[in-house]
Design a protein that fits this description.
This protein is α/β, with parallel strands linked by helices and 973 residues long. Helix content is 35%, strand content 16%. Helix 23 crosses helix 24 (783-791).
């Protein structure tokens, strides 16, 4: 465990020899840097197209989402971002990490103290300096493959023409009109983004004929075919177990069709959905008769989009909905942002925070603008006044949201991947405001870095934030964003505040593309240490404590009762369900708010868990994924999912499960005892597996590992397939006369090993090295040496065996065989008691799609007339004997306890042997626990949790809360 608290003067500068000093250019120079011959574009050598190869080590996660072609298009894009306050910086940070060719940050203004509320690359020492120039070195450190420049002079049309994308942030509307016309007339993508307090705006114009190459960004669907009619309106019927999943207007092509072979590889045909298993594809009367088989595969068709110019679109806007509970807001906020520009033109300032006079004037301007519309909107004047009250505010989380959305739109404009915003998006988080509002005098600037936030929430609220104690679990991509936002908000900047961050992982190179607090020279260091130091540099006033612990039962002596009871909340930034559900249970037990979030590609979700108000994270789960039958995996795979699951099972069986069991056998004295208690024939399988690993198959050298890999390759990719075809030849028919190899059964072909086939040799190299590593033998990646070894291995010729039975269905097989979040912090600190004051969110930026909803309330249960939820419990303080405990519930709650357990230990039950019952009844509860569990109660445990099964007065079973049994403090404390 290490602490970053008190380390405010830590030097975070990279080693001098690693500093980039070759990217400085004059403000007017060509930002493309086209004459440079160095590796400077997206990890690629310069060439006529800008990029041919991608640094897969750095961009590995992004490549899974975008693909190589989209990344190559991004590598040619030169981006101009105007405005270097918090929003402009957030956009620049994300785009640089994404890997465009160059980014130029334009700003003619100088840093002011309030900029520090959201601009994390500025410090107090930068006040008075140009914002763009002061941020330049920090931005360059993010990605050495992207050329980053600063521009401080006025924008000319010639200068603008150098860029593929222009982004305007915090810009006057006159500039939006003028640059909008230049961009639209010169085929330059334009994005306008702005935030005012808790309100945000994004506008996109990608030109009159913009091509989207992949609209949804999802893997193409495929379906196996049962029949295709020969008709004017041909109907394709899928196999019963295969829902096609297509939508009207989708396009498909075909493969493996027998008979109607003209469909194989045909031009994409438009789909008309007729049902979950059927769809139409138009006229097939001129084609051959269908015989059998076939796969229909969805085709991602390009889409042309015609964008209006800024001038035309602002007059006749088209909105994308960000919150279906606020469907009336986009037209009103469209007017509010325009009115704000007018107000600023009239007064050379924004409306004063929480000032009624300025708010009334803004309402008047909105009324005038609305009357000029062809179709006037219905105006909520309270909303417009609220907009005016906080328009002078600068909120880091809002800029993180709008900045992230804007950066994704830039990547769409560069790559043609995913559907862009058409054309206006408005987003607000007004639920975060206090229900009673803020007094004007409390929202005035005080010359603080938090003035932008004080303008929205007031000074008293800022003091509350300063003294919060938060536990951030995970320092990956989400964890880095949590820490950045918390530090800029001033969380833990007070005397009582602190942020504890834990992450057990080391920084890897692939992390640098998403986890922006880390730099190349940090690779190999602990994530939590580096992240803690990085945010201290952003805000030296905060207190950060860095841990390197896994959260789980094994660390409950660290994250104990004292630890959790001292917290104000927990923010999860985890990447696995087990850790999330564990932290969820801890937060429910200690009654702490939990911020839960996750991302997958372009998708993200946020869930807020509030004690006594909402359900917990574990209360609802995604539906279970459809399992794959064993016989399908082993013998009849027909989809990519089957091959992936087979490969995973193969890997875990060869290199994980058996090795772990062998290790436990050698190190854990109770392993045999536990194994023998397993059901069915599992004990025999486990013990035989251990014997095979330790004795039968144990290699003595790396050469033997190569031999094992070669034999295993032959077994998996030749012998088993040959045996399958011996049992079921390719021309086999069933007893009904239909071909056996039809429908979902696809006839395989055995492979012959070829040492000159790179994929075959890859397998041998990987398998041999994994096996050597498993046994602690020296590894060897010399492909030439391994190729020589494997060429000399004589593999016995496989002879198929008669009488081998292969399961065709799972029932046969079973006969033989007995797994935007920080906004919520504002809401939590406000202490809102209404469910509608909170929002859970789900977004898919690829579509784009936004959905926000109230959290579900905690489900209510009842015994007698007492309602309870998962947040309730029985509280029992001080020692009782078991007899007293049972009597207490009988007397105080009219509940007869029939069973009582603690963890996995049954302490009492109505069927307990009389001798054991008599022995335990007069023991203190803590003593009963120690005696039954045969373990001491650790000193850090302040309370025990008991689960009850009870009968009511009528003798019926009744569900009741758990019991928190608080132990007495040890003598002398």
């Amino acid at each position: 465990m290490s602490s970053a608290a008190g380390s405010h003067t830590t030097d975070l500068s990279p080693p001098a020899k690693k500093r980039r000093t070759d990217l400085s250019i004059s403000p007017n120079s060509n930002c493309g840097n086209k004459n440079s011959g160095e590796m400077a574009q997206n990890g690629s050598s310069n060439n006529q197209e800008g990029a041919n190869s991608i640094d897969e080590g750095l961009y590995s996660r992004q490549l899974y989402v975008l693909g190589h072609e989209a990344m190559r298009r991004m590598a040619t894009a030169e981006v101009l971002i105007c405005g270097a306050k918090g929003l402009g910086l957030e956009v620049a940070k994300n785009v640089i990490l994404g890997g465009v060719k160059s980014v130029t940050l334009h700003d003619g203004g100088n840093c002011e103290i309030q900029d520090l509320s959201s601009q994390y690359y500025l410090t107090k020492a930068d006040v008075g300096k140009n914002r763009a120039e002061a941020s330049l070195e920090h931005l360059r450190e993010l990605n050495s493959y992207v050329s980053v420049h600063a521009h401080t002079e006025n924008l000319s049309e010639d200068f603008l023409r150098k860029f593929k994308i222009v982004v305007l942030t915090d810009s006057p509307i006159e500039e939006q009109y003028s640059i909008g016309e230049i961009a639209h007339n010169n085929d330059i993508a334009l994005i306008v983004a702005d935030t005012k307090g808790l309100f945000g705006q994004v506008f996109c114009d990608f030109g009159e004929s913009f091509t989207v190459h992949d609209v949804k960004g999802e893997q193409p669907l495929s379906a196996m075919i049962a029949s295709i009619s020969k008709d004017k309106n041909s109907v394709v019927t899928c196999l019963e177990e295969t829902r096609h999943g297509f939508e009207d207007g989708d396009y498909v092509t075909f493969s493996e069709v027998q008979g109607m072979v003209e469909l194989n590889g045909c031009e994409p045909r438009k789909v008309q959905v007729l049902g979950p298993y059927t769809f139409g594809i138009g006229d097939t009367t001129d084609l051959s008769d269908y015989v059998r088989g076939g796969v229909a595969t969805q085709v991602n068709m390009p889409k042309k989009i015609n964008f209006k110019s800024f001038k035309d679109s602002i007059a006749e806007p088209e909105f994308i909905m960000s919150d279906f509970a606020k469907m009336d807001r986009p037209p009103q906020l469209h007017l509010a942002f325009q009115a704000l520009h007018t107000f600023k033109q009239n007064h050379q300032r924004l409306p004063k925070p929480w000032n009624e006079t300025d708010a009334e004037e803004l309402v008047s301007i909105v009324k005038d603008l609305n009357l000029k519309n062809k179709e006037p909107a219905e105006i909520n004047f309270d909303l417009i006044k609220q907009f005016s009250f906080i328009a002078a505010g600068d909120i880091c989380p809002m800029q993180a949201v709008i900045g992230g959305i804007t950066a994704q739109e830039i990547m769409k404009a560069c790559s043609g991947k995913f559907h862009p915003i058409l054309q206006w998006l408005y987003f607000d988080a007004s639920e975060c405001l206090p229900e009673e509002g803020v007094k004007e005098e409390l929202a005035q600037p005080v010359g603080s870095r938090y003035d932008g936030q004080i303008a929205v929430f007031g000074g008293d609220f800022q003091n509350k934030l300063a003294n919060l104690k938060y536990f951030v679990v995970g320092a990956g991509a989400i964890g880095c964003e949590h820490l950045k936002n918390m530090s800029l908000m001033g969380i833990a900047s007070g005397e009582e505040g602190k942020i504890i961050i834990t992450d057990m992982d080391l920084i890897e190179r692939s992390n640098l593309n998403r986890q922006f607090l880390f730099r190349p020279w940090d690779v190999g260091a602990m994530k939590s240490d580096v992240a803690g130091r990085a945010v201290l540099k952003m805000n030296p006033s905060i207190k950060v404590i860095s841990h390197q612990n896994r959260v789980g039962p094994e660390t409950e002596m660290i994250y104990d009762d004292d630890f959790f009871e001292d917290l104000d909340g927990v923010a999860n930034a985890l990447d696995n369900i087990d850790a999330r559900t564990y932290m969820d249970r801890r937060c429910v037990y200690y009654r702490k708010p939990l911020l839960e979030s996750g991302t997958l590609g372009t998708k993200g979700n946020v869930q807020v868990v509030i004690p006594f108000l909402t359900e917990s994270y574990s209360s609802s789960q995604d539906p279970p994924e459809r399992s794959i039958p064993i016989c399908t995996l082993k013998n009849f795979p027909n989809a990519i999912e089957h091959t992936l699951q087979w490969a995973r099972d193969e890997f875990e069986g060869l290199f994980k499960q058996a090795a772990e069991n062998a290790h436990l056998y050698l190190t854990d004295p109770s392993f045999i005892e536990r194994t023998l208690k397993l059901a069915g024939n599992q004990p025999l399988e486990v013990i035989e597996g251990v014997k095979r690993v330790i004795i039968d198959d144990r290699p003595e050298s790396f050469d033997q590992c190569v031999m094992w890999a070669r034999y295993h390759w032959a077994e998996q990719y030749h012998n088993q397939i040959s045996q399958l075809l011996f049992n079921f030849p390719s021309d086999q028919v069933t007893n009904t006369g239909t071909p056996f190899w039809s429908g979902p059964k696809r006839c395989p072909k055995p492979l012959d090993f070829d040492v000159n086939n790179p994929m075959h040799l890859d397998y041998i190299v990987a398998a041999a090295n994994l096996r050597a590593f498993m046994y602690g033998l020296p590894t060897n990646s010399d492909r030439k040496h391994i190729a020589e070894l494997v060429s000399n291995i004589q593999v016995p010729k496989f002879v198929p065996k008669s009488g081998v039975r292969i399961a065709v269905t799972d029932s046969e097989a079973n006969d033989h065989n007995a797994t935007a979040k920080v906004f919520k912090t504002f809401q939590l600190v406000q202490g809102h008691k209404k469910l509608e004051s909170y929002k859970n969110g789900f977004i898919n930026l690829a579509l784009p799609f936004f959905a926000f909803s109230e959290p579900l309330p905690a489900p209510k249960l009842k015994y007698y007339d007492t309602e309870f939820t998962l947040w309730d419990r029985f509280e029992v303080t001080g020692e009782m004997t078991l007899r007293e405990f049972l009597n207490y519930f009988q007397k105080e709650h009219n509940l007869e306890i029939t069973m009582l357990s603690q963890g996995v230990c049954m302490l009492y039950s109505f069927f307990l042997q009389e001798a054991k019952r008599k022995e335990r009844m007069d023991l203190h509860m803590s003593e009963v626990v120690k005696r039954v569990s045969r373990r001491p109660i650790e000193p850090y445990i302040k309370a025990l949790v008991f689960e009850l099964c009870c009968n009511d007065t009528d003798g019926g079973d009744v569900e009741v809360p758990y019991v928190r049994y608080t132990l007495p403090e040890p003598m002398g404390e």
